Amino acid sequence: MSDTSTRPVVEICGGEAGAEPVRELLPARTVELGGSTRVRRLLPTLGRRMVGAWCFVDHYGPDDVAAAPGMQVPPHPHIGLQTVSWLLEGTVHHRDSLGSDRLIEPGELALMTAGRGIAHAEQSPDPHAPVLHGAQLWVALPDGARTGDPRFEFHADLPVVTGRGLRATVLLGELAEAVSPGRVHTPLVGVDVELDAGADVVLPLEPDFEHAVLTVSGAPDVDGVLEPGSLCYLGCGRSQLRLRAGSGSRLLLLGGVPFGEEIVMWWNFVGRSGDEVRAAREAWQAEIGGTGPARYGAVTGYDGAPLAAPAMPPVPLRPRGRTR
C-alpha cells in the first residue's frame, strides 16, 4: 500500500532525535487509498517525521470487506525506500515490476526494496477474506543503499519470542537474540507483540535506538493506556519496556538508530532533494505515457491502468531536520 493521494503532503524529514525517554502521543489523520480503503496515517505527522529509519506508518482496519472489493492500489512507483507489508487479518496480492507475484497472509513478511526504482500493485484477491486489517510501513534507505538494485523478499517463517502471556514476532531486526531474515540497511527493529489478558512482561530494548509503539487492538499499558490506532513515541535511552494488558491486546514496536540523513519524502518517493524527486516523477509519467525509458518497469497481471503521479507542489522541496 502506498500514497494514492492526488494532493500529497510535502514531507520533509531528517536530523537527530533527543537522547532521553519521552512519552509523546501522535495523532493520526485519515487518508483514502485506492477508492475503497481508508487508513490512519501515523507517520509522518506534524512534529514527528521518523522513528529510526521508519518514515511512514499506515494502519488500516479491521474493515468488513465481505461485500466490497477490499484493497485496490494500482501500479505505482517507489525510489529510495523499503516497503514492509504486515497483515493482521485478510490477504493481499502483491505484484511488482521484478515479476514478483505473491499472496501475503497474516504473519508473513513482504519486504520490497525500491532502490533506484520499482513499481508495484496491491489488491485483495477475488474471492477474499471478509476482514482486512494490517499495517503498511516504509523504511528510508541510507545514501549507500538508496540507488541500488530493487529487490523483493518474502519470508513466511519469522522468529518468535514467547513468554507468559506474550508472543512477539520479529519482522525486522532483532529482539532477545531472535533475528529476522529480512535484509535491513540501518540498525532497526520491528516487532508484532501479542499480549494475553493479564499479561505483564518486560521487553529488552536497545538504548541507542529511538522507539515507538502502534496499538492495533486492545488497550495495552505502555507508560499509560494506549487506545487502538494510536502511536506513542518513546524516545531514546530505554533499555527495557514494560507492557501490561487488562484484556487481549496487540501492538507494533518500531525502533532504530536515529536517521542522521536529511530526506525529502513526497508522494511515493524518498529522495535527498527536490530536483531528485521531480526527476523521479517525470520519469514515471514518461514511462506510463510511452514517451520515456523503463526506469521502473511494468507490473503484469494487474487489471487496470497505472496510477498517474500528482502535480508537483507549488513550493520548493527542500531537505530539512526532524523538527520544524
The H/E string reads EEEEEEEEEEEEEEEEEEEEEEEEEH
Assembly type: single chain
Q: How would a crystallographer describe the biggest sheet? A: 7 strands, antiparallel
The number of helical segments is 1
Q: Estimate the helix proportion, in percent.
A: under 10%
**Counted beta strands:** 25
The strand line-up of the biggest sheet is: 2-21-20-23-18-15-14
Shape: globular
What amount of the residues lies in strands? Answer: 35-45%
Q: Which residues form runs of ≥5 with pLDDT under 50?
A: 10-17
| Class of secondary structure makeup | mainly beta
Our measurement of the CA-to-CA distance between the termini, rounded to an integer number of angstroms, reads: 28 Å
Mean pLDDT: 92
Report the C-alpha radius of gyration, rounded: 19 Å
Question: If you had to describe this structure to a student in words, what would you say it looks like?
Answer:
The protein has 324 residues and is mainly β. The chain is built from 1 helix and 25 strands. The strands form 6 sheets. The protein has a 7-stranded antiparallel beta sheet with strand order 2-21-20-23-18-15-14, with no helix packed on it. The relative contact order is 0.21. Residues 10-17 have low confidence and may be disordered.
